[in-house]
Design a protein that fits this description.
The protein contains 6 helices and no strands. By secondary structure, it is an all-alpha fold. α2 runs antiparallel to α3. The longest helix is centred in the middle third of the chain and has 79 residues, at 89-167.
Length: 234
């Protein structure tokens, strides 16, 4: 085997190996898509949880704001009752002070919860961006998978056709046809030669007998006799 044939066969082997391994990327892509879909499901669950926390925290902040306003309103009512003489001034001021203290606590809690709600809102926004990115990535990979499968089918078909073509010995077929053609021409030539030889081997007696037999068996037709008479041949 020449070095060029060896190189060609090595190249064919590598090409076939590459085609045979086309199934691996498909399986890897399918597994990757499944993993991404699991990640997407987890991300969407986390997004829903964070959004739920943000909503509850914002609601709690609003409730604390309302509670602070309500404590302030109660402190004002206590002072009004003290002014009208309905409550002892010492008790009214003590209760009003307690109400204002609770108002401050509720106001501070409202601020804290608002900040926490803002933080959860930011987290929800980040998670939403990740979810959108995962959805886009999955869609891209699914489209790539469709293309990859089509390429794999094409490669497999091309491989099969090339293998079939490679098995056809075109030179051998042409050589066989040329031999058949030469054989037919040789047989035709021999047939002609044998015919000429057969004619050449006839003796003079054979020719005389053949002529006499032809003359005896051939009866001139009326039209032929009439034509001869007209031409003055008889």
């Amino acid at each position: 085997m020449s070095i060029f044939k060896r190189i060609f066969k090595i190249g064919q082997s590598h090409a076939h190996d590459a085609i045979d391994k086309m199934e691996d990327p498909i399986k890897m892509t399918e597994q990757g898509i499944r993993d991404l879909k699991q990640d997407l499901q987890k991300a969407m669950t986390s997004l829903a949880e964070v959004k739920g926390i943000a909503i509850r925290t914002r609601k709690d902040a609003d409730n604390n704001k309302k509670l602070a306003a309500d404590y302030e309103r109660k402190a004002m009512l206590l002072l009004q009752k003290m002014q009208s003489g309905e409550l002892d001034s010492q008790d009214a001021e003590r209760l009003a002070t307690e109400a204002l203290s609770k108002k401050e606590e509720s106001a501070k809690e409202a601020v804290r919860l608002s900040q926490e709600a803002e933080h959860h809102g930011t987290m929800a926004g980040t998670l939403q961006a990740n979810v959108n990115k995962l959805k886009s990535t999955i869609s891209t990979y699914e489209n790539d998978l469709i293309t990859l499968k089509a390429r794999a089918r094409t490669a497999a078909s091309t491989k099969k056709i090339n293998q079939q073509i490679a098995k056809v010995d075109s030179n051998g077929t042409i050589s066989m046809l040329e031999k058949m053609k030469a054989k037919v021409e040789e047989d035709e030539s021999l047939a002609i030669a044998y015919g000429e030889m057969a004619n050449a081997d006839k003796s003079v007696d054979d020719e005389i007998n053949l002529a006499l037999e032809s003359g005896q068996s051939a009866v001139p037709s009326a039209s032929l006799l009439e034509l001869k008479k007209k031409m003055g041949l008889e």
